[in-house]
Amino acid sequence: MDEQARKTALRMIPYGLYVLTAGTKETTIASATINWVTQTSFAPPLLALGIKTDSAVYAAARESRDLVLNILGQGQGGLAFAFFKPAEYADGKLGGQEVRWAANGAPILTSVPAAVELKVRHIVELGDHHTFVAEVTNVHLNQQITGRPDEAILHMKDLGEKVFYGG
């Protein structure tokens, strides 16, 4: 297979950007910017998330099985970049960002337009990112969404011509 052609073709798949959080005030809290997310079922509502196996959020998600998918909005590229590296929970903030707590105990970033509480139902252990299949247990709209909801989100392409993940 031509490696450059493979990268180009796979990078044609559009991605939104999200900050995944796991853990609670009583346990280790971890977070990371992720982009491999898709809905896979209406009933029950299920999402599939690709999580890098050597990340802190992978370990916390695997242990707690309770997650929050914080959906980044237009203009939140700085937030995406901030969570590309490990973020500390200190002084009631995660990576310097205000949080509130989901019913499942995981942190919700208050500055994002929406957040989805998840319960891990299955983990597919293939590749350098394992696929977590998680059920939506609650949702939070932190601000009014007008127009098409999918146009309110931050996309990978919004980070610039040279920013890619995957391929």
Averaged pLDDT: 93
DSSP strand content: 35-45%
Describe the main β-sheet briefly.
7 strands, antiparallel
Poorly predicted residue ranges: none
Strand order of the largest sheet: 2-1-5-10-11-4-3
CATH class: Mainly Beta
Write the layout of secondary structure elements.
Elements: H1 3-10, E1 18-22, E2 30-34, E3 37-41, E4 46-52, H2 56-64, E5 66-71, H3 77-82, E6 89-90, E7 93-94, E8 97-101, E9 107-109, E10 114-124, E11 129-141
Antiparallel strand pairs: 1-2, 1-5, 3-4, 4-11, 5-10, 6-7, 7-8, 8-9, 10-11
Protein name: Diflavin flavoprotein A 1
GO molecular function: FMN binding; riboflavin reductase (NADPH) activity
Keywords: Oxidoreductase
Description:
This protein is mainly beta and 167 residues long. The protein has one domain (3-159): Pnp Oxidase, Chain A (Roll). The chain is 14% helix and 38% strand. The protein is built from 3 helices and 11 strands, in the order αββββαβαββββββ. The strands form 2 sheets. Strands 2-1-5-10-11-4-3 form a 7-stranded antiparallel beta sheet. A 4-stranded antiparallel beta sheet has the order 6-7-8-9, with no helix packed on it. The longest helix is centred in the middle third of the chain and has 9 residues, at 56-64. The protein is globular. The model has no long low-confidence stretch (mean pLDDT 93). It is an enzyme of class 1 (oxidoreductase). This is Diflavin flavoprotein A 1. Keywords: Oxidoreductase. Belongs to the non-flavoprotein flavin reductase family. Its EC number is 1.-.-.-.
